[in-house]
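Crash report, auto-generated. Payload:
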Amino acid sequence: MTLVMGILNVTPDSFSDGGAYLDTEAAIGHARGMLAAGASIIDVGGESTRPGSARVGVAEELERVIPIVHALAGDGIAVSVDTMRAEVASAALDAGARIINDVSGGQADPDMLGVVARSGADFVLMHWRDHSERFQDTASYDDVVFDVSHELIAQRDKAIDAGIARERIILDPGLGFSKTWDHNWTLLRHLAQFQKLGHRVLVGASRKAFLGELLGGREPLGRDGATAAVSFWAAQVGVWAVRTHDVAGQSDAIAVARRLALESPF
Ligand code: PMM
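Recovered output after restart:
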């Protein structure tokens, strides 16, 4: 069954929820609400990756993320931490995080793969080419499905060489990261190809700009219905999890896909 990973961005500038959960109590309350709505994992992030955003300092990222990880993990909640920094990953793992979600797949910080390997935690390895200020210049492919798959596998091999167990690696095509809108649609159309790579697959389409473009320029908060359609599609393909802001809507979409699959005569 496809799981829902609820997004908890403790950033002032994320594109759809920036600033809402900077206060620790508010963040924890939001996480609890997402769990009640059907999330299995809470993905805590202290650095926005929105196109063009500047990086935050490591001290600030630690200060935003670690108290929340501590509180949630202390309550037995499965916490994932969205970070490109080994130092943050290491502190988060010490605080009880079970998954490191590195949008750079271990490329941004040379110490990341080693830190994750030593911990035995799961590792979300997303397709990534460069930091967000250079997304536009790096969104060029001969065949986006083939190229993204190959680049993911090359990075996966580095993660295994660094000592991360194969079954702990989750692959993510990285929608919106060095991708044009058309690239995102092509990757989604061929999502089943990623399922064949022999790993759990995570998809992050939630409220992204390619959905806004589809809907005539609609703002992020109006994109949850379209996100649910993507979640339905992802669940039909059998992905491991969808990463989302709108846990209730995505859980419903997945429940529909699940019921249809159960009753399928095929
Ligand atoms: N997208 C964002 C941030 N982190 N992590 C993974 N694994 N996959 C994604 O697609 C992804 C991510 C950007 O979205 P946000 O600013 O709403 O968190």
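Post-recovery validation: Residues 7, 9, 14-16, 45, 48-50, 82, 101, 103, 124, 126, 172, 174-175, 202, 204, 206, 243 surround pterin-6-yl-methyl-monophosphate (CB under 6 Å).
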